[in-house]
Amino acid sequence: MKILLIRVSSLGDVLHNMPIVNDLLRHFPDAQIDWVVEEAYVHLVRLNLGVQQVFPFALRRWRKTLMSKPTRQEIRDFIHQLRAQEYDLVLDTQGLLKTGIIMGMAKIAPTGKKVGLANGTEGSGYEGISRIFHTASVAVDPRTHAVLRGRLVAAHAGDYTVNTPASFGLRQLYSPSQTRPAWMPDQPYAVFFHGTAGASKKWARENWIHLAKTLQAANLPILLPWGNATEKAEAEQMAAQIPDATVLPQLSMQDAIILAQAARIAIGVDTGLTHIAAAYETSTIEIYCDSPRWKTEGNWSDQIVNLGDKGQPASAAEVELAVQALLSKTVST
To answer: What pTM was computed for the model?
Structure first.
């Protein structure tokens, strides 16, 4: 069985696609599973030991120099590598024209199938034209969780039922026996994933500052990562009001994943690194402010607490109680 997964972006959505790999390997233990993904997320996909070959897709970069000879050669190489073998199943769990075109280029065995979404979920960027590349389309409820949506497509293609909690199959990048990265404190720490692209998805700064007192009482230093100049400035402003808070240097993707994996507790808004912490089943609190919780909430582990909802941000007191409960659970286990 040779299977190709097509989910090219974004970070959180690529992550939420990963339980498909574990599902497929439980039902087809000898399957070869390959994946097409935007080049920025190749490192993330390679953390899943069940994926054998990763095809980097660089549309965002190619569009800027589409007429240049090197770019055209890269595109030809991508198509050649993609079509180098036949697949029994090709699964498009994104449902966009561009992912449909990739599906169309992939070769299938004589009895092979190309399976994708028959419809989008609420708020998704689904493009119905993608269905023209399918041999079968899977209808899902408009309020299907982001993780379950892809799992249902794969289950339909593989003729099995989804009946287990999601398992992400991520390789551990760090263990206490290894040399600590230079930015990592020599004691357990908390991390605030405060940054996000949309201002409406942010949690008020005064809430983070209030929450810091609970973590300081637990002797947990607070690490503040950032991804751009605006987030760095926000981190510095928070650190100025939080004793024992550290603004981190700019981290590579690998170090950012280690930061999420190795934390004693991760607290964050609806953003990719918060979801990575939840996928590793780090003690995680996901705070929803302006996105629907049903779409991406961590529902596969009791180490994850989901608070707030679209238009209803969690209060600092609610998050404080959740922190205390998770830290107590961590100590007791």
So the answer is: 0.94
How far is Cα 227 from Cα 196, in angstroms, rounded to an integer?
9
Q: What number does CATH give the domain 2-158?
A: 3.40.50.2000
Token pair of 158 as six digits: 């593989």
Beta-bridged to residue 54, according to DSSP, are: 35
- Residue tagged 């050669």 (tokens): 73
Distance CA 214, CA 321 (A): 9
Measured between alpha carbons, how far is 80 from 64 in angstroms, rounded to an integer? 22
User: In angstroms, rounded to a whole number, what is the distance separating the alpha carbons of residues 215 and 294?
Assistant: 28
Domain ranges of the chain: 2-158, 190-332
Query: What is the rounded CA–CA span in Å between residue 42 and residue 53?
Result: 10
pLDDT in tens, the chain (333 residues): 999 999 999 999 999 999 999 999 999 999 999 999 999 999 999 999 999 999 999 999 999 999 999 999 999 999 999 999 999 999 999 999 999 999 999 999 999 999 999 999 999 999 999 999 999 999 999 999 999 999 999 999 999 999 999 999 999 999 999 999 999 999 999 999 999 988 899 999 999 999 999 999 999 999 999 999 999 999 999 999 999 999 999 999 999 999 999 999 999 999 999 999 999 999 999 999 999 999 999 999 999 999 999 999 999 999 999 999 999 985 544
In single-letter form, the type of residue at position 231 comes to E
Q: Is the dihedral of CA 148, 149, 152, 158 positive or negative?
A: negative
Helix ranges (H only) for the chain are 11-17, 19-27, 42-45, 59-62, 69-82, 97-105, 146-158, 205-217, 229-239, 253-262, 272-279, 293-296, 316-332
Topology of domain 190-332, CATH = Rossmann fold (3.40.50)
